[in-house]
Every structure is written in structure tokens, then in C-alpha cells.
């Protein structure tokens, strides 16, 4: 164990004084006292690696057990801001694995560091909130307070407790509500207005017109189905966003999921007179994924290719392994040979409710949420979605996912 740098002056002064005194008097007893002074000058170990080494904690075993059972992160600091101990949640979620170093080295969050410094100066509790954007958007809140160590050494030393709570799920729920009110209300207004108009017509002028009644009821059914598709898509997107910060852990075979999604969409392809071509490797392609969500990604991409690129007559779906400098990557690709997408539309394709052609999308029963759902699922899997399109030549949507490390 290395002593903190603050102890070095004390170490050298105490040790040097004792050694010099021993030399001048030439006494074995004083030489022993000098060695004792050196040992006393070295503080107790406060630095340990969380992985593979015992963690030196100023807390009792019962207190550690309680805090380790908490889902919220807890970090215990000395009054000078150095990390003394962190509970299991802090080590796993925040990556705090080194003790004895300044807290600012462990978490580089200016608002939180200022709160810790203020608590150290004033002794009054503080709260801090902040957000992170990489690899996914996350929100945190911290409560910082002082207390005295009752059973550590030295007795009664002042310390600082930092409790950190992950607010991501709550923030996503709030955002989900805002988006639903802002976007869904706009999208639902048109079919609701149509339904209201036809109901009024059937109750009034067309009350006894059997032919008009059948025609209007058919249109009303279409508008009701449109609202159902929209609400289903919104609910699906909301569920995905609620779990966006939780990476899937199941091992699944990409090739098998792609094959299943292709079989699911063959009937739609037949309706549009589109041929589905499948190109898969013989070896399994193992990734950490949610199987249902992965099928949903491939299904959405194939349906889009059939609806909007089906004039090319065929859609090619492939799954393969790509070698990159960062490691092996699974690549799922859906390519159509239709009219393609204009370059100005490509960057906005994954926005909610964005459509290249609004009327065509509605005519083909599109909701404007399919690619937004794909984007969020891919982000949850720590993957990447790329789009290449050329007018008159078709479009290729590719999903890249990190391969599962089966040895870990």
C-alpha cells in the first residue's frame, strides 16, 4: 500500500529526527524508537483496488452490509475530499474502484464537486443534480452530508457521505408524457376529426342512407385502425425508452433472429410483389440482446423496405460478422433496390413522426415511429444504425452490434 502524499513530510521529519538522535547517542533503544516513529508516521492504508483486493473501510461490517444492499450509490469521503470507501452500487454503476485519491478523480462532475467542497467548509447538507449524454442520456441527483466516524481511527474523525440516486427512469417517464401530449395529440387529431364528422353525418343527413352508411363505416374503421397503430407504436417506444439505460445481458443468435423476422414478413412481401432474399453466415452470430427487440428492429426495417423501396422488386437481408479495430461486430443489413431517399431527408429519418412523404406514409399505414423505435433499441444495445441511400438505386439500413464475449 502507498501512503498518501500528505503524509510524506511527517514521515521524513519523524523518521529523520529519530534516526539522527539514535546516531548521536549510539543507543539501540533509541534506534528502536526511531523505527517506531517512522511506523507511526505512516497512516493506515486508505487506498485499495475494488477488484481482487480487500477494501479498507472506515465503517463497521454491519454498516457496510446495509449500504451494499442499497440500490443507490454511496461514497464515504474524508474531510479533505479523498475517497475512503464506496458501496457496491457505486463501484458497479459509477466505476469507483480506487480509494485514497481525491473524489474529483473518481467523478468529474463540477456541480457535485462544488457541493462536496461546500459541505466540507460549512458542515451543512447540499444537493446536486447533473446529467450525462454518453453513451446514453442519464440523470443523477446527489445528497451530500457530514457525519463523524464512530468506530474508525482516529476516533470521531469527521467524514462526508455522498448518496447518489439514478433519476434516469423518472426523467424518461416525464419526457414520455411530454412527447405523448405534444406529438400524439397532433397525430390523433386528424382521425378523430374524421370519426366525429362521419358520426355526425350518420346521425343526420345519412341516417337512412344505407349505401352512405356502409361507405362511412368502412372509412371510420380505417381511421380507428390508424389510431390503434399509432397508440401501439407510442407504447412500444415508451417501453423501450424506459429501459434504454439497461443493457441487455441475454446471449442470442443474430442469424436466427433475422431468419425469424424474414418469415414473419413474407406475407406482406407477397402482397407488395416483393421477393425477400436472405444471406446468412453458416456460423452463429452471438450478441448480447433482447431477442424480442432484435426481431422488432429487423421486422421494422424489412417492412419499411417493402413499403417504400418495394418498387425495386426485391429486398436483400443479410447478417454477418465484421472485423473492426475495436473488435468483432455483428452487422445486420436490409437493402432495397427502389427509388432511394433524397440526401436532405436521411439525417432526419429516425426523428419521431418524421416522414419523407406524409401522404404516402399514411396511405401505407405508416406511423412515423418505426425508425425512431429502431434507433432507440439499437442505442440500448450499445449498437449503431447507419443509412446509405442513392436516388434511383435504393437504400441500405445497417445495424452494428458488438459481439458477445463468451469467455467472460
Describe this structure in words.
- This protein has 12 helices and 12 strands.
- The chain folds into 4 domains: 43 residues, no CATH class; 120 residues, 2-Layer Sandwich (Beta-Lactamase); 79 residues, Signal transduction histidine kinase, dimerisation/phosphotransfer (DHp) domain (Helix Hairpins, Orthogonal Bundle), CATH 1.10.287; 161 residues, Heat Shock Protein 90 (2-Layer Sandwich).
- α9 runs parallel beside α10.
- It starts with 7 loop residues before the first helix and ends in a 6-residue tail after the last strand.
- By secondary structure, it is of the alpha+beta class.
Q: What is the CA-based Rg, rounded?
A: 32 Å
Strand content: 15-25%
Number of helical regions: 12
Shape: globular
Helix content: 40-55%
Order of helices and strands: HHHEEHHHEEEHHEHEEHEEHHEE
On the 0 to 100 scale, the average pLDDT is 81
Q: Which fold does the CATH topology of the largest domain refer to?
A: Heat Shock Protein 90
| Overall domain count | 4
CATH architecture of the largest domain: 2-Layer Sandwich
Assigned CATH superfamily of the largest domain: Histidine kinase-like ATPase, C-terminal domain
Alpha carbon gap, first and last residue? 29 Å
Q: Which CATH C-level class of the largest domain is it? A: Alpha Beta
Summing up helix and strand content along with how strands pair, one would put the structural category as alpha+beta
Tell me the major beta sheet.
5 strands, antiparallel
Low-confidence parts lasting 5 or more residues at pLDDT below 50?
1-54
How many beta strands in the DSSP annotation? 12
Question: Order of strands across the widest beta sheet?
Answer: 2-1-5-4-3
Amino acid at each position: 500500500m502507498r501512503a498518501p502524499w500528505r503524509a510524506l513530510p511527517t514521515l521524513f521529519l519523524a523518521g529523520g529526527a529519530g534516526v539522527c538522535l539514535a546516531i548521536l547517542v549510539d543507543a539501540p533503544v533509541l534506534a528502536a524508537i526511531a523505527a517506531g516513529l517512522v511506523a507511526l508516521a505512516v497512516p493506515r492504508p486508505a487506498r485499495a483496488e475494488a477488484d481482487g483486493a480487500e477494501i479498507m473501510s472506515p465503517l463497521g461490517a454491519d454498516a457496510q452490509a446495509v449500504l451494499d444492499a442499497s440500490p443507490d450509490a454511496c461514497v464515504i469521503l474524508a474531510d479533505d475530499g479523498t475517497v475512503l470507501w464506496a458501496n457496491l452500487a457505486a463501484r458497479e454503476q459509477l466505476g469507483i474502484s480506487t480509494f485514497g485519491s481525491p473524489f474529483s478523480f473518481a467523478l468529474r462532475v463540477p456541480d457535485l464537486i462544488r457541493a462536496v467542497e461546500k459541505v466540507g467548509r460549512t458542515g451543512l447538507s447540499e444537493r446536486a443534480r447533473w446529467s450525462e449524454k454518453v453513451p446514453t442520456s442519464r440523470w443523477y441527483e446527489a445528497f451530500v452530508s457530514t457525519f463523524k466516524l464512530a468506530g474508525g481511527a482516529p476516533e470521531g474523525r469527521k467524514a462526508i457521505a455522498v448518496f447518489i440516486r439514478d433519476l434516469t427512469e423518472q426523467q424518461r417517464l416525464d419526457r414520455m408524457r411530454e412527447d405523448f401530449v405534444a406529438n400524439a395529440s397532433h397525430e390523433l387529431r386528424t382521425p378523430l376529426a374524421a370519426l366525429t364528422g362521419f358520426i355526425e353525418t350518420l346521425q343526420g343527413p345519412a341516417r337512412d342512407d344505407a349505401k352512405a352508411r356502409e361507405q362511412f363505416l368502412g372509412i371510420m374503421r380505417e381511421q380507428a385502425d390508424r389510431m390503434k397503430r399509432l397508440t401501439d407504436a407510442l407504447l412500444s417506444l415508451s417501453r423501450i425508452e424506459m429501459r434504454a439505460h439497461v443493457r441487455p445481458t441475454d446471449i442470442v443468435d443474430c442469424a436466427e433472429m433475422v431468419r425469424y423476422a424474414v418469415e414473419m414478413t413474407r406475407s406482406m412481401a407477397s402482397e407488395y410483389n416483393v421477393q425477400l432474399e436472405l444471406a446468412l453466415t453458416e456460423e452463429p452470430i452471438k450478441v448480447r440482446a433482447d431477442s424480442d427487440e432484435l426481431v422488432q428492429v429487423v421486422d421494422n426495417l424489412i417492412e419499411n423496405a417493402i413499403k417504400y423501396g418495394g418498387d425495386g422488386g426485391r429486398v436483400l437481408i443479410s447478417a454477418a460478422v465484421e472485423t473492426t479495430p475495436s473488435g468483432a461486430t455483428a452487422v445486420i443489413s436490409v437493402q432495397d433496390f427502389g427509388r432511394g431517399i433524397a440526401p436532405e431527408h436521411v439525417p432526419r429519418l429516425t426523428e419521431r413522426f418524421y416522414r419523407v412523404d406524409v401522404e404516402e406514409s399514411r396511405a401505407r399505414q405508416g406511423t412515423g415511429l418505426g425508425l425512431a423505435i429502431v434507433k432507440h433499441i439499437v442505442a440500448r444495445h450499445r449498437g449503431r444504425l447507419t443509412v446509405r441511400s442513392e436516388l434511383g438505386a435504393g437504400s441500405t439500413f445497417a445495424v452494428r452490434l458488438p459481439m458477445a464475449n463468451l469467455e467472460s
